[in-house]
Design goal:
Length: 454
Amino acid sequence: MNETVSRLLDAYRAEFTEKLQAWVRIPSVQGAPEDGAPFGREVRHMLDAAEADAKAMGFPVRDFDGYACDITLGDRPEMIAVLGHLDVVPAGDGWNYPPFGAEMDGTRMYGRGTSDDKGPALASLYAMRAIREAGIPLRKSIRLILGCNEETDWKDMEWYAAHAEIPAVGFSPDASFPVINTEKAIIHLRFTAPETGSGLQVIEMATGERPNVIPGECTAVVRGGEELAEKVRAWGAEKNLPVAAETVPEGIRITAEGIPGHSAYPEGRRNAIGMMICLLRDLGAEGPLKVLADAVGMTHDGSGLGCACSDAVSGPLTCNMGILHLKDGAWTGTLDMRCPVNADLPALRDAAKAHLPGFEVETLEMKPAHHVPADSELVTQLLAAYEEETGLPGETVATGGGTYAKVLSQGVAFGATFPDDEDLAHQANEYADMDRLITAAKIYANALIRLAGE
Ligand SMILES: [Zn+2]
């Protein structure tokens, strides 16, 4: 791309590093609302810092009552949007570095928000600065919108949309390269059935709190003695699955150990509820548990629910049972299905209902897919910028997860992690590599020149 822009971005490196450290040291986790600070004092603090930095670079900045800000380059009516966020999730445990210390280790900066999403947001801002300082003529304006509530409720974008016009086209540097242009549709179902009382007697079971989590452990208390406990162990040995059983006063307590994860990415995970219900069915459970074990069990493709499907742009449907509770004589649980773009959502819901005889099934959520065609101007230009700056092959990617990009009607997620990076968003020891952030800034500048340049 433009040599001057590239050189400028290299030259900003020390300042970029220092600014990002200052941003990361503000623990902008959502807090109690205050005047002008709807997401708490620290988030407000962070927004002030970002606004001050953008103003110091000479950009016009608008504040939206502490919900978000926007920073604009150019005065053309047509716009390309870049959408990032300044809030972070809490630090959590397990850090080897102070989570808000922004400590450098070689070229890596460690800290909450370094990669999600302060680093990529700042890389976008420096890309805009380089474009301006290089004097690149623009036929469209570039608008960086920085939200303050992405990690929880997206109230920032609701507010922004009510007080400003959201550009139609753009990208969100809040995920990974090359380009995520497809987000699957989401169906959340809740099912309920009375326990029939026949077969194996389950006394207690309550696993999971959220539909979108693959439970990592499931325990149940069932009536029986040492003989039954032996059968549990034999089942585990035969299937080569980690289950355990111990006798307790009411019967035996069974534990199934899964591999936890996010429901949108079931590959390589193991749902502990699925293990448990298959085990209980094989031990003689009847009624609702048997229905669930047959229809869902340990699968995650929806096949037993008559829902298995797939299309070329999205890949296969995924299905997760995140919750299953026995309470007051009834079973209640949830299914979280991530569905291909072309899927008929009501038909999938009806198929699932039909495969759960005896259950009442209620739709908690039915969210359409978000898709920007791979041959659109936006996607082809972003991929070209990525290929030019990295020499790596560009391709479009589908996700079962949600990204900030769908705030824009033609929005895609674009960086800033690279295909071989470990994804540490929301985890301990989150870091950003400054070499890679500079490369990301060059990709963003390249892309913005292609989309908005004359
Ligand atoms: Zn994020």
